[in-house]
Amino acid sequence: MKLLYLWARLACSLFATIPVSGFYLPGLAPVSFCEEDGKTSDCQIQLFVNRLDSVESVLPYEYDVFDFCKDEEEKRPSENLGQVLFGERIETSPYKSTNAIRWASRWDYILVSMPHSNIQWFSIMNSLVIVLFLSGMVAMIMLRTLHKDIARYNQVDQEDAQEESGWKQVHGDVFRPPPNGMLLAVFLGQGAQIFIMTFITLFLACLGFLSPANRGALMTCAVVLWVLLGTPAGYVSARIYKSFGGEKWKTNVFLTALLCPGIVFADFFLMNLILWVEGSSAAIPFGTLLAILALWFGISVPLTFVGAFFGFKKPVMEHPVRTNQIPRQIPEQSFFTRPVPGIVMGGILPFGCIFIQLFFILNSIWSHQMYYMFGFLFLVFIILLITCSEATILLCYFHLCAEDYHWWWRSFLTSGFTAVYLLIYAVHYFFSKLQIQGAASTILYFGYTMIMVLIFFLFTGTIGFFACFWFVNKIYSVVKVD
User: Fold this and answer.
1) Could you report the per-residue pLDDT of 198-242, keeping only the tens digit for each?
2) Measured between alpha carbons, how far is 61 from 72 in angstroms, rounded to an integer?
3) DSSP secondary structure string for all residues of 341-385
4) In a 10 Å sphere around its CB, with 0-12 CB exposed, 13-18 middle and 19+ buried, how is residue 237 labelled?
5) Could you give the CA distance from residue 113 to residue 259 in angstroms, rounded to a whole number?
């Protein structure tokens, strides 16, 4: 608390002495606060302040929690949902300024403190090298190995086929419904919802509609999109579950609408209780929590039911080959084709594409740095999409060649395991980069990190599953099966 006090006194003294005539922030129109004739050297402008925090704690407090540097009028402007969720309660503060700084230089003090863009380009080049490597491997499999397999399988007769080995031999089991198919369908529905939400949010931010100057706009956009995208979640979950032969459609819909959002909300509620006990300004008011619940149960859940209704109304997806009644025995597998080693290896390359960008994102969340390079972030998003797809397809092909047809869950977990590496990196970041002290701050850090990990797990797992789903359908639709 002493550190917060000293920081607030320093901030007030700097605000009273730095000669500026205004600020220009991307996404906001310039405003003139002084007379245009230039005769007035000093003028009073309105300063908005949000919170008081420290590098040793993740607990923010109101800017005027101490009895100094207060605005007598104490006017509070309107706040959006994102600002409330981030604990940035906006209030006014007195400010004295002069017009000694040029207009073009008014944001330099922020840009100077930001990481240089050369590191971002290094991150992009690193990710592109990984993508080119995976693309070359996939191209070799698709154009050479797989093409030869299909030609060989289509030329041999039935007796020779009995002596062959490879992915064709499991055609009667490759589309056999997996165990716990309802849970997989629920995860895929939520993952599709998160994927569409993330794509639209990053695309709008890349175009400049969600400027970092407009605080809370990014979070507000993400929450609103998630609420409105309940229909795709219900539709995808219902279609996948119906293809597994599931009949408990009510349970499927309820789990799709409540399971993963319920876990996130429970974690968020517990973190909010800690903030409330500590007296932090980041504690969400009870009315806002009720508003979030109203959005969830009043809009998202009904839209999920609507999507599930149309999903169950559609006919069952037809697979290119029939499923045998008796499951085929899986031969003895080598170490690298067993489930766990394949899943662990599958998440390494996707994580290698994002770990540099992840460093800047964690800095913006926990180290009080402004993140504004959304163009780089959107490009890394596309690279991650390609990498997860190609890595999962490669491992799926190797497992099918080893006559292991259990690809449903494995394709989801292979790319979804990237979230485990994200968790490991977050732990490393906590101990190596942060100076956080206190049990409450530590619990808050890992509590919010678990929410990020769960969302990223559903997001990457869904990408890998649908890439593998397309691949398996494609290869078995072009091979002759008697």
Assistant:
1) 999 999 888 878 766 666 788 888 999 999 999 999 999 999 999
2) 19
3) HHHHHHTHHHHHHHHHHHHHHHHHHHS------HHHHHHHHHHHH
4) buried
5) 41
> Is residue 424 classed exposed, middle or buried when 0-12, 13-18 and 19+ CB atoms within 10 A define those classes?
exposed
Give the phi and the psi of residue 96 in degrees, each rounded to 5.
-120, 135
- What confidence tens digit (pLDDT) does each residue in 254-297 have? 999 999 999 999 999 999 899 888 888 778 888 888 989 999 99
The range of the structural domain enclosing residue 466 comes to 119-135+165-175+321-476
What SS3 state is found at 59?
Answer: strand
Q: How far apart are CA 90 and CA 79, in angstroms?
A: 7
Task: Specify if 229 maps to a domain.
Answer: no
**Are the C-beta atoms of 357 and 207 separated by less than 8 Å?**
no
Number of Cα atoms under 13 Å in the Cβ half of residue 433? 15
What is the distance between the alpha carbons of residues 214 and 221, in angstroms, rounded to a whole number? 12
Q: Is residue 39 part of a domain?
A: no
Q: Read off the amino acid at residue 107.
A: W
Task: For the chain, give the mean pLDDT.
Answer: 79
Q: Which residue matches tokens 């599709």?
A: 192
- Poorest-confidence range of 159-173, 219-233, 336-350, 444-458? 159-173
Task: State the first-to-last Cα distance of the chain, in angstroms, to the nearest integer.
Answer: 76
Extract long-range pairs of 129-132: CB within 8 Å, 24+ residues apart.
Answer: 130/349, 130/352, 130/353, 130/383, 130/387, 131/353, 131/383, 131/386, 131/387, 131/390
In a 3-state reduction of DSSP, which class is residue 60?
A: strand
Residue 235 · residue 190 · CB < 8 Å: no
* pLDDT confidence tier of residue 128, bands split at 50, 70 and 90: confident
Q: Report residue 403 CA to chain centroid gap.
A: 34
Q: Is 481 left (phi over 0), alpha (psi -120 to 50) or beta?
A: beta
Q: How many domains does one find in the chain?
A: 1
CA distance 201 to 78: 23
- Cα–Cα distance between 449 and 439 in angstroms, integer? 15
**Residue 475: pLDDT over 80:** yes
Q: Give the per-residue pLDDT at 13.
A: 44
Asked if residue 445 is part of any domain, the answer here is yes
Asked whether the beta carbons of 403 and 169 are under 8 A apart, the reply is yes
Residue 418, domain member (yes or no): yes
